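Please fill in the sequence for the structure shown.

STRUCTURE ENCODING:
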């Protein structure tokens, strides 16, 4: 049995290739295309001939991705990158197209749909960096983010603040109302933190009944304001059981220049706040 690969077999295989391939001239006008197309869009062989790469890929800026990479290919560079088009994530590979003599006559590209893969990767990353119960960032993500912010703040010489929060009497809530109500209390605090944080800030479940917030470019006054706002929002709520939190603040660089120093400063203030709160409750009981 002969296994010789005939030209017509090669052509059939190329035309059935997932995704789209194309070749251009030096003006980035498409001279050939092949492949079975992209999801929701059949692109018959030759149907793109005469169009510019800008028209094909819906690119607006001729000096940004993906056109910039096409121009680089004309100078002999290969590239591989991702490009968002019509709610799809495309993986594009580009290379210079050379004549038999080695001269660059255009470029050759191949695009494949990796949307599902990117969604899966994003879902896995989200699960690895977020708390399953509250949807907030988890301990590891918070610590990594504070580490990065310290480096950024050192370069730009700006400050930021961290809040350490403790949900008061979670054990009492669990014992009196059950663990489902305790979980609901944790989610109530998480929702409040999301509401009170800016999009640039980061709220996290630090562990157990502890939460943490990183406030970007915040001074002590702003940190106090956010802290008071969080406490006031809980006080105004009419849901039962009533919730209170103890809060400690650490400010960079006044309270430390490392993650450990900042969190220790916030934790000390949190402990003093919690002790003061317990003393007030004892007096009230008496």
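FILLED IN BY: designer on duty
SEQUENCE:
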């Amino acid at each position: 049995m002969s296994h010789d690969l005939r030209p017509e077999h090669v052509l059939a295989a190329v035309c059935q290739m997932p995704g789209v391939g194309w070749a251009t001239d030096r003006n980035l006008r498409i001279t050939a295309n092949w492949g079975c197309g992209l999801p929701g869009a059949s692109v018959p062989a030759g149907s793109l001939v005469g169009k510019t790469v800008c028209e094909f890929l819906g690119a607006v800026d001729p000096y940004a991705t993906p056109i910039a990479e096409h121009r680089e290919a004309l100078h002999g560079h290969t590239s591989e990158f991702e490009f968002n088009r019509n709610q799809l994530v495309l993986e594009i590979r580009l290379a210079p197209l050379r004549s038999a003599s080695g001269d660059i006559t255009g470029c050759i590209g191949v695009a494949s749909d990796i949307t599902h893969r990117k969604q899966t990767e994003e879902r896995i990353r989200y699960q690895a960096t977020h708390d399953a119960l509250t949807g907030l960032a988890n301990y590891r993500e918070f610590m990594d983010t504070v580490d990065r912010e310290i480096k950024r703040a050192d370069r730009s010489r700006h400050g930021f603040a961290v809040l350490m929060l403790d949900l008061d009497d979670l054990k009492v809530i669990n014992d009196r109302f059950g663990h489902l109500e305790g979980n609901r209390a944790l989610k109530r605090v998480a929702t409040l933190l999301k509401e009170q944080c800016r999009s640039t800030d980061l709220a996290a479940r630090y562990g157990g009944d502890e939460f943490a917030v990183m406030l970007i470019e915040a001074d002590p006054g702003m940190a106090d304001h956010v802290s008071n706002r969080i406490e006031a929002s809980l006080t105004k709520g009419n849901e039962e059981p009533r919730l209170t939190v103890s809060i400690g603040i650490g400010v960079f660089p006044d309270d430390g220049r490392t993650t450990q120093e900042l969190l220790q400063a916030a934790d000390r203030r949190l402990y003093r706040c919690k002790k003061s709160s317990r003393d007030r409750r004892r007096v009230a009981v008496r």
